[in-house]
Amino acid sequence: MIVRHVPREGAAGYLQPIEAAGYQIERIDVASPDFADIDLTEPDLLIMMGGPMGVYEQDVHPWIPVQIGKLSARLAADRPTLGVCLGSQMIAAALGARVYPGGHMELGFAPVSVNAAGAGSPLRHIDGVPVLHWHSDTFDLPDQVELLGSTDRYAHQAFRRGANLLALQFHAEMGEDPRFADWLTHFWADLDVAGQCGVALRQDHDDHGPSAVAAGRAMIGEWLAGIRA
Fold first, then answer.
1. Which EC numbers does the record give (predicted)?
2. Where are the chain's structural domains?
3. What is the pTM of this model?
4. Which homologous superfamily does the CATH classification assign to the domain defined by 2-226?
5. Is 190 exposed, middle or buried, given 0-12, 13-18 or 19+ CB atoms closer than 10 A?
6. How far, CA to CA in Å, does 51 sit from each of 10, 20, 28, 102, 168?
């Protein structure tokens, strides 16, 4: 099951390895009236994608504490779970870590520095590959997880817990999805905050996107192959 926080942020390039691994894709939007009744411990695989809201904005988005509660139960059962950007922050919160504004926008294509633990994990596929970053929130590293990668701006870019939990702050799924154009127009204020030029970012997307998605697919494919039922 894919949980979408906004329709424009879907699994994109990650769909190919997910389907290749034999999973049938179901989607649920947090804005759906059905979301409150969903048991997130049931799906064989749960994937939570990104969104512009912050985990700490629970007064504005009442579904956030609902999702964190459902997610906490799933993680306690060690059910296979992947979080991307906001999804990774949701995982951190569900594991009891603080999520908060980082003080600066990280936006654009740049590589993640993969550490020694990451080199022995599926993250090895993105080592040295520019991938898309688009966030200004961050989180403390939860207890009993393994940090896999960092950037100069944000130390906590990826972590895992055992074989069944992977959290990614960056967007290696984006690089060939036409919804990127929608990101540029809908989130234009982020470009101003980051001092980014939309034309230059679109060119970076064209230059780096295919290699980012290829690396991201290899990463997710290897992670899925290692899941323990």
1. 6.3.5.2
2. 2-226
3. 0.96
4. Class I glutamine amidotransferase (GATase) domain (3.40.50.880)
5. middle
6. 10, 26, 14, 16, 13
